[in-house]
Design goal:
The chain has 177 residues and is an alpha+beta fold. Helices cover 30% and strands 28% of the residues.
Length: 177
């Protein structure tokens, strides 16, 4: 099911996510909803907090850019190793029409559970590594704008202010327990 993507300004995007302790039907539904919502928004990744769920679950699909790479869901992901540095342009579905240069590791190895609870590792480089790191940041309440230079943040201040109102509205409509 396609769900609304939470916009910047919502407090949920700044909260750390709880680990998944059991892969039950609710988690499997969350993974399907993440894929459906990401595809509908034409994104390459989406994290559970972007749908208002504070659980450590992300999906990534870079198959349009790299057809050899299949879409992937990661439950309780963690970076095992990271190498190299590169700066690349990033955007985020929680920040429509906002982009900026972000430094990331050029290669990562990540460990996670799949939808069946099986532990696996994924090695990624370049754009794939960037997408995975971006989504994993969401699980810790870190956003791509946190990496922008003060000058770049100043240049996008107006857009951020408008988005913040949208995110705050989401919080009002979806109060957290």
């Amino acid at each position: 099911m396609v769900r609304e993507v939470v916009k910047y300004g919502s407090q949920i995007l700044r909260q750390p996510c709880a680990p998944v302790t059991r892969i039950d039907p609710a988690i499997k539904t969350l993974v399907r909803d993440l894929f459906d919502s990401m595809k509908a928004a034409e994104g390459v990744g989406l994290a559970a907090p972007q749908l208002g769920v504070l659980r450590r679950v992300v999906v990534v699909d870079v198959s349009r850019q790299h057809p050899e790479l299949l879409p992937i869901s990661l439950i309780n992901p963690r970076i095992l190793s990271a190498e190299g540095r590169e700066v690349g342009e990033e955007g985020c579905l929680s920040f429509p029409d906002l982009y900026g240069p972000v430094p990331r590791h050029s290669q990562v190895r990540i460990e996670a559970l799949d939808i069946n609870g099986k532990l696996f590792t994924v090695d990624a480089e370049g754009f794939y590594a960037r997408a995975l790191q971006h989504e994993l940041d969401h699980l810790d309440g870190k956003l791509f704008i946190d990496y922008l230079s003060p000058l770049k943040r100043q240049l996008v201040r107006g857009k951020l202010k408008a988005l913040k109102k949208e995110g705050e509205r989401w919080d009002q409509e979806h109060p957290q327990p």
